[in-house]
Amino acid sequence: MSTNQTPSVIPSEDRKKVTVHSIQAMKTRHEVISMLTAYDYPTALVMDQVGLDIILVGDSLGMVVLGYESTLPVTMDEMIHHCKAVARGAKYALLVGDMPFMSYQVSTAEAVRNAGRFLQEGGRNAIKLEGGRDRAETIQAIVNAGIPVMGHLGLTPQSVHQLGGFRPQGRSAETAYRLIEDAQILQEAGCFSLVLESIPARLAKLVSKCLEIPTIGIGAGAGCDGQVLVTHDLLGIFERFTPRFVKKYADLAGEMRRAFSEFKTDIKANTFPDAEHSIEMSDIEWHFLEERLKISNPSLLIRERVDS
Ligand code: KIV
Predict the structure, then answer these.
(1) How far apart are CA 155 and CA 160, in angstroms?
(2) Has residue 2 got a pLDDT over 80?
């Protein structure tokens, strides 16, 4: 865990909305792109205050927020619900929405319609989807509909059963070569950027060098054009498992346990709420109330005196 000083909030007059074009320009001037996942309004608000470039509502939502075993059960409606909350909090970051399992695999028409929902209902500026050459036609159709697409190669969690678990990809010459080809195909299909997840650092660096579009790495070393982490991993909220490539910047689960158990201790001991956290009425109003009760409900007054 790191202990940095308090970060400054970037004044809104100094901020411009991040677009797919500004993301591309960052690659050109070798400025590393920052991206994190968010699923709710307060987190998006803080991310926007510190000036993150991209906020992704990832389908990791299913595991780190909704408690599913994998990302597979996540639905379009769940994604849209969380996208709307994030859009209310973030005004400047580029907002990307992750297309959930089975929202783009069945037919191209369905994929375009679902991608459109992310922009129309979810307040997104772009969508992300997983897969290589098999998705090229779908990506082209979505881009042709005017929707920017971020690709995702390497460990693609929606294919967890096909991949045999959440394990690194592209470690053999053959699979690495195929990944390079896939990356080029996705660029040609019109992707504006590409997530590279859990692949060897030198492979990610090579892919980043040979593509014109920016790569965003997660478990792919420092040679990518940008970096992303799942926020609940970074904050130490999700404790079920932590991939080796995650750096924990906080222990919020520990902090939550401390706060919840302190609350419980306080209320059991009657030390909360105290006067500072209570609301009172003036003595005169209280007197008027007593006078009224004396006439209408005197037994209530007697009970109140006995209890206090
Ligand atoms: O769903 C997600 O959070 C993602 C990131 C790991 C890039 O796809």
Answers:
(1) 8
(2) no
Q: List pLDDT tens digits, range 198-255.
A: 999 999 999 999 999 999 999 999 999 999 999 999 999 999 989 999 999 999 999 9
- DSSP secondary structure letter of residue 235: T
Q: What is the pLDDT of residues 132-189, one digit of tens each?
A: 999 999 999 999 999 999 999 999 999 999 998 889 999 999 999 999 999 999 999 9
Dmax over Cα atoms in the chain, in whole Å?
91
- Contact (Cβ atoms closer than 8 angstroms) between residue 55 and residue 86: yes
Cα-to-centroid distance, 231 and ligand 1 (Å): 10
Name 81's bridge partners.
none
- 273 cis-preceded (ω within 30 degrees of 0): yes
Active-site position among 13, 31, 137, 197: 197
Using only C-alpha atoms, the chain has a radius of gyration, in whole angstroms, of 26
Q: Which atom, in ligand 1's list, is nearest to the CA of 60?
A: 1
Q: Residues 79, 100: contact at Cβ < 8 Å?
A: yes
Using one digit for the tens of pLDDT, what is the confidence trace for 148-162? Answer: 999 999 999 999 999
Nearest ligand 1 atom, CA 56: 3
DSSP 141-173: HHHHTT--EEEEEES-GGGHHHHTSS-----SH
As a residue count, the chain comes to: 308
What residues have CB less than 8 Å from 230, skipping those under 6 apart? 37, 58, 60, 64, 218, 238, 246
What integer pLDDT is reported at residue 303 of this predicted model?
A: 74
230 lines ligand 1 (CB under 6 A): yes
Active site residue 197: yes
Return d(Cα 205, Cα 144) in angstroms, integer.
29
- Pocket flag, ligand 1, residue 55 (CB < 6 Å): no
